Amino acid sequence: MPELPEVEALAAFLRARAGGRTVAGADVVAVQALKTVNPPPAALVGRAITGVHRHGKFLDLECEGLHLVAHLGRSGRLRWRDDLTGARPARSGRGPLAARVRLSPDPEGRAPGFELHEAGPRKRLALYVVHDPAEVPGIAGLGIDRLHRGPAP
Fold first, then answer.
1. Cα separation, 59 vs 96, whole angstroms
2. CA dist., res. 126 & res. 140, Å (int)
Protein backbone atom coordinates (compact mmCIF):
# COMPACT_ATOMS: atom_id res chain seq x y z
CA MET A 1 0.00 0.00 0.00
CA PRO A 2 1.40 3.39 -0.90
CA GLU A 3 2.22 5.32 2.26
CA LEU A 4 1.83 9.06 2.85
CA PRO A 5 5.26 10.11 1.51
CA GLU A 6 4.68 8.09 -1.67
CA VAL A 7 1.24 9.62 -2.21
CA GLU A 8 2.70 13.09 -1.59
CA ALA A 9 5.41 12.36 -4.17
CA LEU A 10 2.73 11.28 -6.68
CA ALA A 11 0.81 14.51 -6.03
CA ALA A 12 3.96 16.59 -6.59
CA PHE A 13 4.75 14.63 -9.76
CA LEU A 14 1.24 15.19 -11.15
CA ARG A 15 1.34 18.86 -10.13
CA ALA A 16 4.45 19.32 -12.27
CA ARG A 17 3.31 17.23 -15.24
CA ALA A 18 -0.46 17.68 -15.39
CA GLY A 19 -1.09 21.06 -13.78
CA GLY A 20 -2.71 23.52 -16.19
CA ARG A 21 -3.47 20.90 -18.84
CA THR A 22 -6.97 20.11 -20.01
CA VAL A 23 -8.56 16.69 -19.53
CA ALA A 24 -9.13 15.19 -22.98
CA GLY A 25 -10.53 11.87 -21.78
CA ALA A 26 -11.39 10.06 -18.56
CA ASP A 27 -12.12 6.37 -19.01
CA VAL A 28 -12.96 4.13 -16.08
CA VAL A 29 -12.37 0.53 -17.08
CA ALA A 30 -12.89 -1.21 -13.74
CA VAL A 31 -16.49 -0.35 -12.95
CA GLN A 32 -16.11 -1.60 -9.37
CA ALA A 33 -13.49 1.11 -8.76
CA LEU A 34 -15.92 3.97 -9.45
CA LYS A 35 -17.69 4.84 -6.21
CA THR A 36 -19.80 7.76 -7.49
CA VAL A 37 -22.14 8.12 -10.46
CA ASN A 38 -23.06 11.78 -10.50
CA PRO A 39 -21.23 13.65 -11.92
CA PRO A 40 -19.92 11.03 -14.35
CA PRO A 41 -16.20 10.82 -15.25
CA ALA A 42 -17.05 12.26 -18.69
CA ALA A 43 -17.87 15.56 -16.94
CA LEU A 44 -14.12 16.06 -16.43
CA VAL A 45 -13.48 16.29 -20.18
CA GLY A 46 -12.69 19.82 -21.32
CA ARG A 47 -11.81 21.05 -17.83
CA ALA A 48 -8.34 22.31 -16.92
CA ILE A 49 -6.48 20.78 -14.00
CA THR A 50 -6.24 23.68 -11.59
CA GLY A 51 -4.61 21.83 -8.71
CA VAL A 52 -3.33 18.49 -7.48
CA HIS A 53 -3.70 17.80 -3.78
CA ARG A 54 -3.26 15.01 -1.28
CA HIS A 55 -5.74 14.30 1.51
CA GLY A 56 -4.28 11.53 3.63
CA LYS A 57 -3.69 8.70 1.15
CA PHE A 58 -6.12 10.14 -1.41
CA LEU A 59 -4.95 11.91 -4.57
CA ASP A 60 -7.15 14.81 -5.68
CA LEU A 61 -7.06 16.31 -9.17
CA GLU A 62 -9.00 19.55 -9.07
CA CYS A 63 -10.55 20.22 -12.48
CA GLU A 64 -12.34 23.58 -12.58
CA GLY A 65 -14.94 22.86 -9.92
CA LEU A 66 -14.86 19.07 -10.09
CA HIS A 67 -12.46 16.72 -8.35
CA LEU A 68 -11.19 13.34 -9.48
CA VAL A 69 -10.20 11.66 -6.23
CA ALA A 70 -8.32 8.36 -6.21
CA HIS A 71 -7.29 5.99 -3.45
CA LEU A 72 -4.82 3.39 -4.68
CA GLY A 73 -5.78 0.74 -2.14
CA ARG A 74 -3.22 -1.97 -1.45
CA SER A 75 -1.93 -2.75 -4.90
CA GLY A 76 -2.79 0.30 -6.99
CA ARG A 77 -0.20 2.11 -9.09
CA LEU A 78 -0.20 5.31 -11.10
CA ARG A 79 1.69 5.04 -14.39
CA TRP A 80 2.51 8.22 -16.28
CA ARG A 81 2.58 8.01 -20.07
CA ASP A 82 4.26 10.72 -22.14
CA ASP A 83 2.09 9.81 -25.12
CA LEU A 84 -1.26 8.01 -25.09
CA THR A 85 -2.16 8.73 -28.72
CA GLY A 86 -1.34 5.17 -29.81
CA ALA A 87 -2.77 3.46 -26.72
CA ARG A 88 -5.33 0.76 -27.28
CA PRO A 89 -8.86 1.72 -26.31
CA ALA A 90 -9.53 1.02 -22.65
CA ARG A 91 -11.73 -2.06 -22.29
CA SER A 92 -13.39 -3.60 -19.31
CA GLY A 93 -11.91 -6.94 -18.42
CA ARG A 94 -9.71 -8.83 -16.04
CA GLY A 95 -6.50 -6.91 -16.73
CA PRO A 96 -4.85 -4.55 -14.25
CA LEU A 97 -5.97 -1.31 -15.97
CA ALA A 98 -8.61 0.44 -13.84
CA ALA A 99 -8.72 3.93 -15.39
CA ARG A 100 -7.02 6.13 -17.95
CA VAL A 101 -6.90 9.93 -18.00
CA ARG A 102 -5.71 11.56 -21.23
CA LEU A 103 -4.60 15.17 -21.24
CA SER A 104 -4.44 17.85 -23.92
CA PRO A 105 -1.66 17.41 -26.49
CA ASP A 106 1.66 19.16 -26.02
CA PRO A 107 3.28 21.32 -28.77
CA GLU A 108 4.82 18.18 -30.34
CA GLY A 109 1.38 16.58 -30.67
CA ARG A 110 1.87 14.00 -27.92
CA ALA A 111 -1.10 13.42 -25.64
CA PRO A 112 0.28 12.63 -22.17
CA GLY A 113 -1.72 11.19 -19.34
CA PHE A 114 -1.77 8.54 -16.70
CA GLU A 115 -3.24 5.14 -16.04
CA LEU A 116 -4.30 3.65 -12.75
CA HIS A 117 -3.49 -0.04 -12.50
CA GLU A 118 -4.32 -2.52 -9.80
CA ALA A 119 -2.57 -5.85 -9.49
CA GLY A 120 -3.76 -8.75 -7.43
CA PRO A 121 -7.11 -10.42 -6.87
CA ARG A 122 -8.45 -7.98 -4.26
CA LYS A 123 -9.61 -4.85 -6.01
CA ARG A 124 -9.53 -1.94 -3.57
CA LEU A 125 -8.64 0.98 -5.83
CA ALA A 126 -11.35 3.63 -5.48
CA LEU A 127 -12.26 6.56 -7.75
CA TYR A 128 -14.65 9.39 -7.02
CA VAL A 129 -15.82 12.31 -9.16
CA VAL A 130 -17.20 14.93 -6.77
CA HIS A 131 -17.80 18.67 -6.44
CA ASP A 132 -16.02 18.80 -3.07
CA PRO A 133 -13.41 16.34 -1.72
CA ALA A 134 -15.28 16.34 1.62
CA GLU A 135 -17.98 14.30 -0.17
CA VAL A 136 -15.58 11.32 -0.15
CA PRO A 137 -16.23 9.34 3.06
CA GLY A 138 -12.54 8.60 3.64
CA ILE A 139 -11.60 12.27 3.38
CA ALA A 140 -14.49 13.61 5.45
CA GLY A 141 -13.21 11.76 8.52
CA LEU A 142 -9.54 12.73 8.26
CA GLY A 143 -7.83 14.39 11.19
CA ILE A 144 -4.56 16.30 11.33
CA ASP A 145 -2.27 15.77 8.35
CA ARG A 146 1.03 14.30 9.54
CA LEU A 147 2.97 15.78 6.60
CA HIS A 148 1.44 19.28 6.78
CA ARG A 149 4.22 21.85 7.16
CA GLY A 150 2.10 24.80 8.19
CA PRO A 151 1.57 26.22 11.68
CA ALA A 152 0.15 23.88 14.30
CA PRO A 153 -3.63 24.12 14.75
1. 19
2. 15
